[in-house]
Amino acid sequence: MGIELVKLRKTFNGHAAIECLDVSVGAGEMLVLLGPSGCGKTTTMRCVAGLENPDSGRVEIGGRTVFDDRTGVNVPINQRNTGMVFQSYAIWPHMTVAENVAFPLVMARCSRGEIDARVKEILSLVGLDGFADRGASYMSGGQMQRVALARSLVSRPAVLLFDEPLSNLDARLRDHLRVQLREIQTRLAITSVYVTHDQREALAVADRIAVMRRGSILQIDDPVSIYTNPRTRTVADFLGYSNIFPASEGRVAGAGFEVALAGGHRLVASRAPASPAGALFACVRPEDLRVRAAETSARCAVNAIAGEVLLGSFMGNYIQYRVRVAGGAVWDAFDPDIANRVAIGERVTMEVPPENVLLLPE
Hints:
By secondary structure, the chain is an alpha+beta fold. The protein folds into two domains: 3-233, Rossmann fold (3-Layer(aba) Sandwich), CATH 3.40.50; 234-360, CATH 2.40.50.140. The chain has helices at 41-49, 97-107, 112-125, 141-153, 171-188, 199-205, 223-228, 233-238, and strands at 3-12, 15-25, 30-34, 56-61, 64-68, 73-74, 82-85, 159-163, 191-196, 208-213, 216-221, 243-253, 256-260, 266-269, 280-284, 290-293, 304-314, 319-325, 330-335, 347-351, 358-360. α2 crosses α3 and α2 runs parallel beside α4 (141-153). It is globular and about 75 Å long.
């Protein structure tokens, strides 16, 4: 069952949270809504669930209209056949794990035999075998989130909605559950909408990512395409291109396109901007930069930018550098060459291949 949102609009106190939104989610697809706080991603998901009533537009789930302002259709929450996993878990601490998971089935007046069988099945699916009789308040954060997932799945919903479900967990557990959530969603082929502000999380779980800003979708595409080819500097910024600087004096240079940055620096991109007219920004991912001590850097290298190391943090499989260049701009670089770590205060040269420089409009 897919989801269709047509010309969806929602305002709060006269301010538009969603503005004329059109988006389709294919059957069995995981669509991630990615963006900063206040961009409308959670409001969009709540309109699908029925927790918010749009001002106008249409919402369809599996070809069935559940909201349409023109015809007056507004299907209640409990009749939309959706499951929801909240950021705050929303687990009842006075109940056992099994009682929490069984609650939707109890409300649906299922038989005791069916409830027991389905609760056992779903707890096994989320890796909570043997936890049925444990009090929910004695579970860890990661276990409680799996209980919340099991409760959302036990009623076999047509659509699953995730509202930043991992943001309360520590980094290691977040990585583990991210994989588990994706495995379960893929195995069950449940159409899903996942809300997050974490670009790494979005890239890891999505079939497609919709980057939102001010109630509208700026770009929607599969993770690889949107990561390697953001259309604007705003999208690039939210996808981890932390080195974004105004560029000017664009001109064709051999097989590439050269621009000037503040401080007298010049960069060559292998691809010319889609439209050279108007404001341009040079965008470089930190992981595409290599940092070399100034005396060991290649002479006259293309896209070699000199600077001074302000910070060098060991991150396990790479060194995170902050480098200040002429003109005062500070660049971020994630260099995997751990053996040749450069000291704070040392003069260095950063190098980036032309194919890793993007020239984008605002």
